[in-house]
Amino acid sequence: MLAAYSRQMEPTVRDGAEELLQTYTEDGGINYLAAAALLPSRSAIDAACAELMSLMFPGFRGEPLFDSSDLPEVTRSRLRSLHSRLKPEFCKSLGKYPPDAAVEKRAEELLTGFFSQLPAVRKMLWTDIDAAYEGDPAATSYEEIILAYPALEAIAIQRMAHELYLRHLPLIPRIMTEWAHSRTGIDIHPGAKIGSHFFIDHGTGVVIGETCEIGTRVKLYHGVTLGARSFQKDESGKIKKGGKRHPTVEDEVTIYPNSTVLGGETVIGARSTIGGNVFLVQSVPADSLVSYEETQLHIVQKRPRLRGRGNGSFGG
Q1: Do residues 281 and 228 lie in contact, with contact meaning Cβ atoms separated by under 8 Å?
Q2: Strand, coil or helix: what is 98?
Q3: What are the phi and psi torsion angles at 175 (to 5°)?
Q4: b/e map 93-102, b = 16+ CB within 10 Å
Q5: Distance of CA 99 to CAs 3, 45, 67, 171, Å?
Q6: Which of 21, 32, 107, 198 is 20–30 Å from 124 (CA)?
Q7: From CA 44, how far away is CA 4, in angstroms rounded?
Q8: Residue 214 near residue 200 (C-beta atoms within 8 A)
Q9: Low-confidence residues in the chain, pLDDT < 70
Q10: Which domains does the chain carry?
């Protein structure tokens, strides 16, 4: 019976495979078979992100240290592991693997520069932890924030990816932030410039665009979008790349849940508060309070239920 089923299935599989294979030979943007070996491995970058988080917060990622004296060797071992894992992916991202001498040299320069910035990134992350602890009354300890706050993971990966973005490494910074996005629901482009003491409360659904500039001590809630208002097009109707497309948020701004701020020329002045569910496409001066008042909340007393109608259902 199984053999008969296999014979019946074979023509369908064969025909489907032939049609699919034909699409692989056609010209198109998704056909990259000839250069597939040059694409960075997402699984390798994902593993590197997890290792980077362990490097930023040793002992918090499921690899307890038996003694503080172990930390120097563990740190050096993690850096060696990251170097071995990332160098081939950097070479692929730079467009040549196996690399020639020039590509290998450039990859090594990028890795050296990236590793040299990790101490500064870690110091910046401690300001973010401070902001979370001071900004969230539910936070009971720094340890809780490091272990259980998804926003810290998203911010940490973005800050590290941003260092590679600044060095013009293709593909990998975006893969890194997408790893964090898939885990946290927080989508921060590696190009965004973010100051110290940054806190995203809850965080699910937050989107921060590539050319966003965020000052110090900014607080966002879930569902906030800092996005582009519109896109310029060239003479053939295609979207122009580059340019300032996303808002600037100055120091000590708070933006409440589900608000949307759009446009590269939009500036939210320092110490302003943007209320929930606001849609904003214009700049606001410093010390502003922005909210919608078109609708009013109505609370009325419900009619008392009649007893004896069974399960609270309406009669009929």
Answers
A1: no
A2: coil
A3: -65, -40
A4: bbeebebeee
A5: 49, 18, 40, 17
A6: 107
A7: 42
A8: no
A9: 1-11, 25-37, 62-67, 294-298, 306-316
A10: 36-184 (1.10.3130.10), 205-293 (2.160.10.10)
